């Protein structure tokens, strides 16, 4: 179906099912129960899952397939956001023109940056992209203030033209009348499920771009990108010029980032320069690596994982911990709370940093590899079944060009 | 002309910080071949050594003075720092006053130890992994170090004043034959520049004139051969890692009065220092120092109003712009060695 093999079709169907059912699946605990704070089925968070999922999927097309580690993808995210808000200001609150513009401008921007940065590889490429992103960030804060509104951030004012605004059109971002921040709430027993328009808008776009990335992974183009990661020198010797392929991958991932940035502004009509800061670029790197670079599901998992724990972990405080460990003897309870304290609440970044280090050290394949290892343990299948033998001559170790 | 000299001086102190961090980065890169994204965190921890020293010296004994009452009617508390009761108010007071320079005594052992632990405990296992993995793991480490500091010291910058003797400004113009009050320059910044020049000279002298330094340089050129000659090069490289961390730490400790330490100052400097290393040329120590001062000065010139009115916003991007131009036209950087970080 849709040009996919049977296995991939099943995979895609599962992904579609999970995405559409998210508002129910993420709400496993009834309202008012002790565990209700672990529910993640509220619109804002779910939108973030979908949006950062898109961002990470796009980043993965570049990093996962070609091995080029970009530290400047936040620039495209920011450009996307600004484009959408500008369309709000000029045309009106319909998100479609903005999103189209976001993808196009991010693509053009990526073409420019990629054309220059991709002349170098390895660490130089990382630093070049980082330099470009920091440049855009600094410019957005200073000289480009007429375009970006500097520190305040770009937002819609009442005296903006908004020429396509009819009398009856909604006064917040909408998709042909479907207002993003409206949602339907359904109560079933003790559970409350929120079905948010914005989430479903993002989710449908996420499914479409996931399908695209699936096609890219399976296409000859994707194989070419993987060849670049494995051994660029050999590829050059075969008579292929890797540059157009890497540039295409860079532009595609830039467009994904632009789309994600645009969606961020579609959910909340604001755009600020801090979206372009290099910490934001670092975040998408974390997501992709944590989930598993080069795998299809990995980046989405990573994005969901980080955004979920960022929201949930930072809400846990000492009082909640005390209620959890109340069954223990007082001294022990206090000791545990004291030990856990630095890692929760505001200390979430510490936990994230540690976790990230653990993943890079012990599990370079990310959560997906971890899952596979557990699966192999459970099913008892041998790990070395498909790995090549020890004959070094015939299985030379691939030298990654990121060296 | 005097405006130009002033901008030049302004550039020097930032340039000194860039040069010191870039020097450490290059030392680590040249010896161990590791791209260390946690080096900015070393700078930051150094700055917090100054903060720690300041608060350590200010640990006080509280005595109650029943003759005086505070506004609530309780006996007034009189805090005497332990140092003052130990050495007398005169000497003790000046020790507290000089806490920032004294913090170097704290920064060196702390940073050496941290460097050793880092190298032996973590970086060692990453020699054979791709550079991307090294970047990622040190990036994670930087986040962790930064968050630990944030946990203990909070997110706000902590003012750490310089000693009174250097707190004012120097009329630098008079010294080189200009009229009075044309070039006024903060004294501590001159101290910082001198300090960094001394440190840089010491590192170079250490590498150039000691047997240890000679072995390290040989190891940088060809690690394998040095190893074959029966020299334990790994041990020496570990020590160099510690020294690089100490250099960054001292740079940070002395920078504390210029820029009140906060937990993310390391990251801000790191991004720029990487640019500096790339401009200077990966693996070239003189290149790193030269590029550090050069970019510091260029950045300072670009922030002059005359230049800004000509090209608006240039001061924000000049460093990155230079890096991009250098990388594209002279990929090896200003003084890069052949074969470093090339496929």
UniProtKB/TrEMBL annotation, chain A:
One of its GO terms (cellular component) is plasma membrane. The keyword Electron transport does not apply. Residues 384-403 are annotated as: Disordered. Keywords: Cell membrane, Membrane, Transmembrane, Transmembrane helix. The chain crosses the membrane at residues 12-29, 49-71, 91-116, 123-144, 198-217, 244-264, 284-309, 350-368. Its main location: membrane. InterPro entries: ABC_transp_permease, LivM-like. The keyword Manganese does not apply. Coiled coil: none annotated. It is found in: Cell membrane. One of its GO terms (molecular function) is branched-chain amino acid transmembrane transporter activity. It is a multi-pass membrane protein. This is Amino acid/amide ABC transporter membrane protein 2 (HAAT family). It comes from Hoeflea marina. The lineage of its organism: Bacteria, Pseudomonadati, Pseudomonadota, Alphaproteobacteria, Hyphomicrobiales.
From TrEMBL, chain B:
Keywords: Amino-acid transport, Cell membrane, Membrane, Transmembrane, Transmembrane helix, Transport. The keyword Transmembrane applies. It is found in: Cell membrane. It comes from the Bacteria. It is a multi-pass membrane protein. GO terms for molecular function: transmembrane transporter activity. InterPro entries: ABC_transp_permease, BCAA_transport_permease. Pfam families: BPD_transp_2 (PF02653). Belongs to the binding-protein-dependent transport system permease family. LivHM subfamily. This is Amino acid/amide ABC transporter membrane protein 1 (HAAT family). It comes from Hoeflea marina.
């Amino acid at each position: 179906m849709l040009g996919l093999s049977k296995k991939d079709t099943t995979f895609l169907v599962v992904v579609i099912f999970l995405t559409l059912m998210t508002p129910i699946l993420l709400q496993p605990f009834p309202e008012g129960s002790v565990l209700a704070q672990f529910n993640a089925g509220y619109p804002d968070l779910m939108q973030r899952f979908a949006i950062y999922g898109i961002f990470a999927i796009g980043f993965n097309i570049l990093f996962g397939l070609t091995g080029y580690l970009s530290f400047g993808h936040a620039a495209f995210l920011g450009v996307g956001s600004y484009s959408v808000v500008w369309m709000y200001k000029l045309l009106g609150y319909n998100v479609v023109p903005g999103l189209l513009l976001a993808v196009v401008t991010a693509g053009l921007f990526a073409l420019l940056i990629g054309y220059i940065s991709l002349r170098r590889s390895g660490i130089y490429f990382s630093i070049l992209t980082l330099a470009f992103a920091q440049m855009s960030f600094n410019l957005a804060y200073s000289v480009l203030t007429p375009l970006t509104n500097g520190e305040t951030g770009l937002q819609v004012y009442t005296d903006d033209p908004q020429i396509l605004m009819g009398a009856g059109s909604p006064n917040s971002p909408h998709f042909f009348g479907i207002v993003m921040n409206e949602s339907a709430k359904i109560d079933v027993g003790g559970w409350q499920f929120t079905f948010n328009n914005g989430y479903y808008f993002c989710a449908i776009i996420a499914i479409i771009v996931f399908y695209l990335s699936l096609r890219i992974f399976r296409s000859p183009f994707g194989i070419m990108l993987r060849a670049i990661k494995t051994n660029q020198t050999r590829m050059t010797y075969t008579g292929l010029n890797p540059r157009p392929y890497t540039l295409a991958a860079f532009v595609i991932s830039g467009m994904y980032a632009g789309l994600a940035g645009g969606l961020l502004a579609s959910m909340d009509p604001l755009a600020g320069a801090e979206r372009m800061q290099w910490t934001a670029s670092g975040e998408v790197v974390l997501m992709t690596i944590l989930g598993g670079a080069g795998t299809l599901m990995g980046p989405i998992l990573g994005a969901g994982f980080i955004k979920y724990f960022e929201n949930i972990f930072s809400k846990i405080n000492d009082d909640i911990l005390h209620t959890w460990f109340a069954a223990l003897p007082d001294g022990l309870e206090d000791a545990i709370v004291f030990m856990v304290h630095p890692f929760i609440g505001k200390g979430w970044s510490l936990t994230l940093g540690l976790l990230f280090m653990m993943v890079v050290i012990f599990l370079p394949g990310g959560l997906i590899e971890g899952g596979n290892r557990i699966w192999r343990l459970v099913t008892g299948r041998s790990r070395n079944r498909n790995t090549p033998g020890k004959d070094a001559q015939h299985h030379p170790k691939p030298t990654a060009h990121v060296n | 002309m005097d405006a130009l000299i002033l901008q030049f001086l302004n550039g020097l102190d930032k340039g000194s910080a860039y040069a010191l961090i870039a020097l450490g980065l290059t030392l680590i890169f040249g010896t161990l071949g590791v791209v260390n994204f946690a080096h900015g965190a070393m700078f930051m921890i150094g700055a917090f050594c100054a903060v720690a020293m300041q608060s350590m010296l200010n640990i006080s004994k509280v005595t109650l003075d029943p003759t005086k009452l505070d506004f609530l009617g309780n006996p007034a508390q009189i805090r005497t720092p332990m140092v003052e009761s130990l050495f007398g108010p005169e000497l003790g007071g000046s020790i507290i006053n000089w806490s920032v320079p004294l913090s170097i005594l704290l920064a060196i052992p702390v940073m050496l130890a941290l460097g050793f632990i880092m190298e032996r405990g973590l970086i060692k296992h990453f020699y054979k992994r791709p550079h991307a993995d090294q970047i990622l793991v040190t990036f994670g480490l930087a986040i962790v170090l930064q968050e630990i500091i944030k946990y203990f010291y909070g997110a706000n910058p902590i003012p750490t004043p310089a000693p009174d003797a250097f707190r004012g400004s120097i009329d630098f113009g008079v010294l080189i034959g200009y009229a009075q009050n044309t070039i006024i320059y903060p004294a501590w910044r001159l101290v910082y520049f001198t300090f960094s020049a001394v440190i840089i000279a010491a590192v170079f002298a250490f590498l150039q004139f000691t047997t240890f330094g000679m072995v390290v340089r040989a190891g940088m050129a060809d690690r394998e051969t040095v190893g074959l000659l029966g020299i334990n090069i790994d041990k020496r490289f570990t020590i160099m890692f510690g020294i690089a961390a100490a250099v960054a730490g001292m740079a940070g400790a002395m920078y504390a009065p210029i820029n009140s330490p906060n937990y993310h100052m390391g990251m801000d400097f790191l991004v720029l220092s990487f640019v500096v290393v790339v401009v200077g040329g990966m693996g070239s120590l003189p290149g790193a120092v030269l590029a550090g001062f050069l970019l510091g000065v260029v950045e300072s010139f670009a922030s002059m109003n005359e230049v800004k009115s000509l090209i608006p916003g240039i001061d924000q991007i000049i460093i990155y712009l230079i890096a991009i131009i250098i990388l594209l036209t002279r990929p090896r950087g200003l003084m890069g060695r052949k074969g470093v970080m090339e496929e």
